[in-house]
Write a structure and sequence with these properties.
Elements lengths: L9 H63 L17 E4 L7 H15 L2 E4 L11 H13 L6 E4 L17 E6 L2 H14 L18 H7 L12 H6 L11 H13 L1 E6 L3 H11 L1 H4 L2 H7 L16 H7 L3 H22 L2 E4 L2 E4 L15
Parallel strand pairs: 1-3, 1-4, 2-3, 4-5
Antiparallel strand pairs: 6-7
Helix pairs in contact: 7-12, 8-10
Subunit structure: Homotrimer. Interacts with the C5-epimerase GLCE.
Pfam family, one: Sulfotransfer_2
Organism: Bos indicus x Bos taurus (Hybrid cattle)
Length: about 375
Amino acid sequence: MGLLRIMMPPKLQLLAVVAFAVAMLFLENQIQKLEESRSKLEARNVFEAASKNLHIERAIARHEVREIEQRHTMDGPRQDVALDEEDDMVIIYNRVPKTASTSFTNIAYDLCAKNKYHVLHINTTKNNPVMSLQDQVRFVKNITAWKEMKPGFYHGHISYLDFAKFGVKKKPIYINVIRDPIERLVSYYYFLRFGDDYRPGLRRRKQGDKKTFDECVAEGGSDCAPEKLWLQIPFFCGHSSECWNVGSRWAMDQAKYNLINEYFLVGVTEELEDFIMLLEAALPRFFRGATELYRTGKKSHLRKTTEKKLPTKQTIAKLQQSDIWKMENEFYEFALEQFQFIRAHAVREKDGDLYILAQNFFYEKIYPKSN
């Protein structure tokens, strides 16, 4: 008996092949969708894990703040208790980058436990010195109403903010330090490439660029352009748009006005020890012991930019041709003159050392006479 063979007509064979192909495409499509779903699920899990970690970090930060507030409210609600005049004090150090600000800030950190005040770093996104309007409101409210953090020393790379425009009755005390504008720019240029001895392992934005400052100026590079000198004026000018208009005469005049009328004391990097000495004499609540700590402490010159090469006279002369340098230098000279004027009326020199003058006024002819 021969084999029974079932033969399909050609049309049916073609339909079977097409059906099989469609089925395979459908299966591949479903597999691809499953893979995409799995990838999305994994990404979602990663995102949720990151969000959870961020939530945990914020929860820890809130817990730390609550612990501090609880320590201050053991005897009752702190917000209902009037603070002593010396305790109801806030200092804002809106530090200009590369002006020895880390060296000075470390002194505040070293003294805060002993002198019983708080130090808080104002960390803005990408070190943006200009706050949004809503952040300005939040910041002013924090500074004035956060009694658990008083007395407080706030520091950060932010431009001057006028608290009076927000209806605040008692404004914070502003202090600052500025530096020769070309020296500051040179220091910042090498800092972006080589970092410093404070965090030597941290990768910097321009790391790997071996070009010297002299070479940059000779080639007309953007990182050493005169426009990069425009920083100290806007930091003192503030949050007005004109403050950040490079080369604005109005901005410089406003910066000078604020320095005289809104800042308690502005020192210079080149005479930092004298700046600290004056602060200790005038504000001992915060700076008692600061001068001795600066002279003898290991952190007084903690942060030094590495691989820094001094510019040549030709490079300096080329930058000094710029109107921007002339304005920044005029502001620096103005600040230096003001600082030296204050120092001359506060200290005396003897055998090469400076001494703070004792109280040099008294009261008399007091009426009516007491019985």
